[in-house]
Design goal:
By secondary structure, the chain is of the alpha/beta class. It is built from twelve helices and 18 strands. It binds 5-S-methyl-1-O-phosphono-5-thio-D-ribulose. 5-S-methyl-1-O-phosphono-5-thio-D-ribulose binds next to α2 and β11.
Amino acid sequence: MKVGGKHTRTIWVEADQSIGTIDQTQLPHRYATIRIETAEDAARAIATMQVRGAPLIGAAAAYGMALAARQDPSDAALERAYAALLATRPTAINLKWALDEMMAALRNRARAERVAAAYQRAEQIADEDVEINAAIGRHGLKLIEEIAGKKKPGAPVNVLTHCNAGWLATVDWGTATSAIYQAHDKGLPVHVWVDETRPRNQGASLTAWELGQQGVAHTVIPDNTGGHLMQHGEVDIAIVGTDRVTAQGDVANKIGTYLKALAAKDNNVPFYVALPSPTIDFAVVDGVNEIPIEERGADEVTTMTGRTADGRIESVRVVPEGSNVANYGFDVTPARLVTGLITERGVLAATRAALAAAFPERVTDPSARPRESGNPEPRTGFPLTRE
Ligand code: MRU
């Protein structure tokens, strides 16, 4: 995707083998890049959400393992880096997937070969993400074209999306946005309703910014607006991303996604979820009870950050001192509310049979995996620890 008209990926290897990425906590006010020099830096960038979005978290963790190998390629050091990176965020399964891929690529190699092998595998993970997302977009494009074909010529297809499942959340293209960008590139009129996505405002700050960079028409709406728009025929299709899809097609995504899916069901609006296959967790079946839901610091709810008229970035408190606050990062949309899963292998029903048929090589036996805790104790700040 383009930044200031120039094609840019969200993560890259610098000449000195450190990792470059965009500091997403500065957007939309400032486009700033950061250098990640060590596995600890990578873990910090993921935990503080300078780097975020399930596929990009996976790629950043993979590069974090390469940085760890560069520092110390011993088994003990790699295991420490694996554990530190895995502990950063509990819901996006892409993180564990990427770390396991890296361990598989390094475990049986001689120490002297590990650094080169680690950079190579991390680069492959990043490149594959780009290819997968481009394919997701091609399949999703057909859905948009179908809707456009039923509308008056020239009338825009109105897509509602939640959070940022865009270019910034991946290495390139985005998942939910990939079809939107491909439709736009083809000259199809598309307009995106962008949920602001409190508390961190990934929609208002990130999705709106990147759609603007690509010249895609969009309107930012407060999170509670989608139902009203759907009742009035203003949403043709909802497309969201996901941090984890279970074997039966339940979908964890940014908090508030479930409410949009309920409203979509009530209004016969097709509700699609776009995902790369590393987001599927075949070892988990019942998403509501089995997917660990991240709880983040109260400060994300009690304060809001923005730019003042004279250009300063300031945080202000919006909740009374003394009020209790809950900050669940994700919710789970049951498969019955999902019209279809847009994957790199086509649009699938959100069912166990369809997922297993499309990705047979990923199917695992759920009983073979230790259960993760469903609902960790509320957390009030960093460091985040996994129960
Ligand atoms: O907490 P975040 O900003 O990392 O959450 C991101 C989302 O919920 C995205 O929708 C999801 O990771 C899919 S990104 C292609």
